[in-house]
Target: SDF2L protein
Amino acid sequence: MRGGCRLLTLLLLALLRGLCRGREPAPGAVTCGSVLKLLNTRHSVRLHSHEVKYGSGSGQQSVTGVEASDDANSYWRIRGKSDGSCQRGTPVKCGQAIRLTHVNTGKNLHTHHFPSPLSNNQEVSAFGDDGEGDDLDIWIVQCSGTYWEREDAVRFKHVGTEVFLSITGEQYGHPIRGQREVHGMPTANHHNYWKAMEGVFIKPSMDPAKHDEL
Model:
C-alpha cells in the first residue's frame, strides 16, 4: 500500500511539473525590445521604410515591401503600446498590443483612413518622432499559441481601424522602383501573414541573442 501511494505521489509530481513547464515561454518566443525584420510569407518581401514620403494621401513617410534580405531600412523594434507595457526581454503574447518602430527613422508603423496609392486599400505609413506618435500606431499580434514564436506566421491587426497589415503585390515605379505596396485590408487572408526573420532577439535575462547579424 505504501509503495502504491509513493508511486501515485511521483506520478502527480510529474504531472504538475509538466503543467508548469507548459506555462513557461518557449525559448523561440519574440520578445519586447527585440529588433527584427518581418517577412510577408505570401510575397516573400520584408517590411521596409525609408525617408521617402507618399506623393498622395497623408504625405507621411512611406512603408513598402522589399525583396532584399540585407537592407538596413527593414529593421523594426518591438515596443509596447505605452511605456512599461512591454518590458525589455518579455515574450510577446498572442493578442498583445504592440508598436513597431522603424529603427533608422524612429517612426512607428501606422495606418489611418487614407487610400493606399496603388491598390486603393488603406494606406500604411510610418509616423511620429523618436518613437512617439499617437493611438493609430497600435497593432494586435494575432497568433495561435500563447506567445509569438519566431517560427510562426502571424498577423498584425490594427486597433484603431481593424485592418490587417497586408501586401498584395502591387509594385511602385520611380523613385522606389520594384518595391511593393504595403496596405491595410479588412479581411484576414493569405496576404497578411508575417514571419520574424533576421534580427537581435532580447532574452528574458536582457542579454542580446543574435539570430543574425545586424
